[in-house]
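Checklist before submission:
- one chain only
- standard amino acids only
- sequence pasted in full

Submission:
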Amino acid sequence: MSIHKSLKLKNNLERERSVLTRWERIEKLMDADKWREGDAVIGLPKVRTKFKVKSRKAQKKAEAEAAQAEAEAGE
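Returned file contents:
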């Protein structure tokens, strides 16, 4: 009998988190110049998490198209 896919331990820690820690939120706000030293750390504005990443197949296809475009431009 096989193991259900939700019980596998492979890539368990690579999952994207939907909630950032307070310090991670402050760092993102500092990068966007929306938070300065001395501002309140309670009641921070919402910060968007990472966008979904393209699948490996889509990435390989995009890389192949880019390489082909470079080869055509080089001719």
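Reviewer check: The CA atoms of residues 13 and 57 lie 22 Å apart.
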